[in-house]
Amino acid sequence: MDILKTIKSSFSDTYSEARSKFVNTASKKGLKLTVYENPNLGPLGEKLTCDVAWAGSTNAEKALIIISGTHGVEGFCGSGCQVDWLECWNPSFISEKVAVFFIHAINPHGFAWCRRVTEEGCDLNRNFLDFNQPLPDNIGHDELVSAFVPDSLDAKSMTQAERLIKEYRDKHGELAFQKARKSGQYKHAHSMFFGGFAPTWARKTLERIITDFSIQNKKFIAAIDFHTGLGPFGYGEPISMHKPNTKSGEWVSKVYGDSVGTPEQGTSFSIPLNGTSRDLWDRVLGKNYAYVALEYGTYSQERSRAALREDHWLHNQGTVDWSCRETKRIKKALKKHYYPATPDWLEMVVYRSRQVLRQASYAINSES
User: Confidence class of residue 368 from pLDDT cuts 50, 70 and 90?
Assistant: First the structure.
């Protein structure tokens, strides 16, 4: 499909619309579907599900896994890219040895409620730690938690919050501040980038999908997880979730080229993070996988911080009135940051998505 046509037809304005497009397109293309129902409802009382569409044999030696909605609201981008790739679908994308799995809206609650977190208030990509082991400390977040998400959004509280943040930045530097803000924290459930006290529904669902489709028995998998909000506007960075000088890291670099960023090497727009899904894939597959987060840039990190602050504050107040003017303002700002939806941004998104998915498909099908 022409890119200018797909940006009008493949992307959606709500979770329900996105799910409908995904399910209908996957069915039209002959893929099989499995539904994982979330126990909660959306803001308008709608049913929430994670849907898995797959092609090929579940007994295939290898698999390509394409994931959207890890960070809820970022699913507007990822879902549209999944629908677009399904519209482009042809038999060459699979072989007897390769199956393809589309995991749509792994965090449907965050997608529907226009949040980056799960129903538990967790950043899913900080939630994959072993909770039977000691959890990482984040002393910087402890120090700044009242500034990241104040009790009030009034002018006095905002001025005090920004003063504390400026003092911390001046004293410790920008990298230390970003680590404090978003590397993951496991104490403050009301604050941003909270990794949880236990596995979330979304994490357990991904683990269930892995078991249901025997993915742990695959010889090799390549995973592409769609994300937004970090980096230059419209640019899609394949972020390697592998440590340097590993078999998996070398596969990622070979397949996706010099544009790959590796946080541990300081070559990515992302910093190293705690509790990412790499922890899960390492436990399940060891060295037999290659994972990238395809991260699309939007606006500045200061804009992101402001939008997340207001959204966390809103949900900390109790039941959210979806029809309230303040709710609409906060949700609009958050959605705009993680899903700009401008024609130029969407065109760049689709072009890069097709490129990375083609690279992965070709590589995993051509290797012995």
Answer: low
